[in-house]
Design goal:
alpha+beta; Beta-Lactamase; Helix Hairpins; Heat Shock Protein 90; 5-stranded antiparallel beta sheet
């Protein structure tokens, strides 16, 4: 037993396909050759027996015609002169007494009246029979012919039984079988090699390429599909790893700035380097940066929970979207006043099933984003409306601003994490760069989507679509 691969109890050694094919082909071929040989010998035996029987019948008829043409007292002389062998000739009178026998000249033979071939000849004029002779202890073919005066002439010769005939053919059959075995072994190896060639040439990386057996195609299709799935999963893992690294780098970079401000300001205050008149300004700076850092951490945690489907176990309730929008606008009113931006909200009362805090955060992010990117004196309009068809009703929340707009090439990218159309303006507005990414993931989580319509320099409209409550 191989020490590197010990076989546990109950372990079954794997079968070799090539050995199984070779063994099966060899066994069946040898069996077929043997059966064919026996069948051919048997057919030859019975054919030869039939031919010998026909010849013996012709011999017996010829003898009967010759004896019928002679006087009864000269029949023995005719048998001795013209029919002396190699067959055995027996002349029998009408009562069954043996008059003459070429095999037994001096002995006295039993009465042949009850012999089967004699009875058949008495009824039809001719009797043909193969039977075992008790006298000679052999299988004998008998042909009896009735003469015109009621006497009989019987011609007989020894016959080999089928088993004896097969035994006599054992040596030549053995030689033939040995040659056949050698030939079959060679042919079986060649056939096995030919059968195994497509399997040996199979490319596991591209199982459907090259020559394949039709019976194996379903299996190879499944293997190919699984390999494609594995390749796709590997690509997705690579992309996910790349996104994770990029996300980690972005988070570290975004956290570094407020931390530096907080750390530097605190260090200056602790070292007594700050004028008492500037203390409030430094305190405000630390507070704002800490709030920015807290918002960033909250957004990162929210995205992480969405990525890990941590919201799946959260309770879903019926959410009044118009009321939710109004609540978001009221909470962001101080921010709008600080940026001198007017915010209005209207629409119809529609409900959606979902996680209310997550939906409120998504709508708040859209409205806050619109306020921050609007020009001073601009306006933000939030509207709730119905859309879709009867079988698929939707709640649509439109958030329109009169801000700087988004270039065509950036419209899909704005939903990526930490992507900003104008980095300098983003730093001024204090955004984390994760708000729209949260909106996108929240929409997908609820079975909806989000899109943006924008004209550069004239503003943007973000459209959030959610399945309406049935």
């Amino acid at each position: 037993m191989n020490e590197n691969f010990p076989m546990s109890r109950g372990h079954i050694r794997p079968r070799s396909l090539s050995r199984s094919i070779f063994t099966a082909v060899l066994a069946f071929t040898l069996l077929a050759v043997l059966a064919t040989a026996v069948a051919l010998v048997t057919v030859a035996y019975f054919s030869e027996e039939k031919r010998s029987e026909d010849l013996l019948v012709e011999r017996a008829r010829s003898c009967a015609e010759t004896l019928d043409s002679r006087a009864p007292d000269s029949r023995i002389e005719v048998l001795e002169g013209q029919f002396s062998g190699p067959e055995r000739f027996t002349l029998v009178d009408s009562t069954g007494q043996v008059i003459f026998d070429t095999a037994v000249r001096d002995g006295e033979l039993d009465n042949h009246h009850e012999r089967p071939e004699m009875i058949a000849a008495g009824h039809s004029g001719e009797g043909v029979l193969v039977r075992h002779s008790d006298t000679l202890n052999k299988d004998i073919l008998y042909v009896a012919e009735r003469l015109s005066d009621g006497c009989f002439v019987r011609v007989s010769e020894e016959r080999l039984s089928l088993l004896a005939f097969l035994g006599s053919m054992a040596l030549p059959m053995g030689v033939v079988l040995v040659c056949a075995v050698l030939l079959v072994i060679v042919l079986s190896r060649l056939l096995t090699s030919r059968i195994m060639r497509p399997l040996n040439d199979l490319d596991v990386n591209a199982p459907l390429s090259g020559e394949v057996y039709e019976e194996m195609r379903p299996l190879l299709v499944r293997v190919n599909e699984q390999q494609e799935q594995l390749r796709q999963q590997n690509e997705e893992l690579k992309r996910a790893e790349g996104l994770r690294r990029e996300f980690s780098a972005n988070v570290s970079h975004e956290m570094k700035t407020p931390l530096q401000v907080i750390s530097g300001s605190a260090e200056m205050i602790a070292g007594g380097l700050v004028d008492p008149d500037d203390m409030q300004d430094f305190g405000n700076r630390i507070y704002l940066e800490s709030q920015r850092l807290r918002a960033l951490i909250n957004d990162v945690l929210t995205l992480s929970r969405l990525d890990e489907s941590s919201f799946d176990g959260a309770e879903r309730v019926s959410v009044n979207m118009l009321e939710l929008v109004r609540r978001c606008c009221e909470r962001l009113a101080p921010l709008a006043q600080a940026h001198d931006v007017g915010v209005t909200c209207d629409g119809i009362c529609l409900h959606a099933m979902g996680n209310e805090p997550l939906l409120e955060q998504a709508v708040s992010n859209l409205v806050e984003n619109a306020i921050r990117y609007s020009e001073d004196g601009g306006a933000v309009d939030v509207h709730v409306e119905a859309s879709g068809v009867a079988d698929d009703p939707q709640v649509v929340v439109r958030v329109h601003d009169e801000g700087i707009g988004i270039p065509d090439d950036d419209r899909e990218k704005v939903f990526e994490r930490f992507y900003r159309t104008e980095k300098s303006r983003s730093k001024e507005t204090g955004g984390t760069g994760l708000g729209l990414a949260i909106v996108k993931h929240a929409a997908l989580y609820h079975g909806g989507d989000v899109a943006v319509e924008s004209v550069l320099g004239k503003g943007s409209t973000f459209v959030l679509r959610l399945p309406a409550q049935a």
